[in-house]
Amino acid sequence: MQILFCVSPEEKKLIRRKMIESKTKNMGAYLRKMAIDGYIVNTDTTPLKKQYEEMHKIGVNINQIAKKVNTTGDLYPEEMQELKEMVKELWHILRSSPLK
User: Fold this and answer.
1) CA-based Rg of the chain, rounded to a whole angstrom?
2) Engineered SS bond to 11: which of 7, 35, 67, 71, CB 3.0-4.6 Å?
3) Do 72 and 38 lie in a common domain?
4) The whole model's pTM is what?
């Protein structure tokens, strides 16, 4: 279904500026969101992305050790210590989460 309405050139510029500020690229999506909700919330996810990357690296390292242990059946004391340190680092990352 289509809804049509008219705006002045100044209103169109203002709408476009606010759309760009909201980081929305599609005019239709922006107007629908504003008509239904009345606002758009922008969230900076940079801290979460950094946290995810750190946790992903640790997870990859843990998986490498787990694969080796599952293949050979051997877990050396230094590998166990490394696993403990990585788990400790994971907990540190989670406790310092920006979502608190």
Assistant:
1) 24
2) 7
3) no
4) 0.57
Residue with tokens 């540190």: 92
Rounded distance, CA 90 to CA 61, Å? 12
Say if 2 falls within a structural domain: no
Q: Domain span at residue 38? A: 7-42
Q: Residue with structure tokens 């694969």?
A: 67
Amino acid (1-letter code) at residue 78 = E
Amino acid 52 reads Y
Which residues, including other chains, have CB under 8 Å from residue 42's CB and lie 6 or more apart?
22, 23
Domain tally for the chain? 2
- Size of the chain, expressed as the number of residues it contains: 100
Tell me if 61 sits within 8 A of 86, measured CB to CB: yes
Query: In this predicted model, what pLDDT tens digit does every residue of 10-63 receive, in sequence order?
Result: 999 999 999 998 889 999 999 998 999 887 787 888 888 999 999 999 999 999
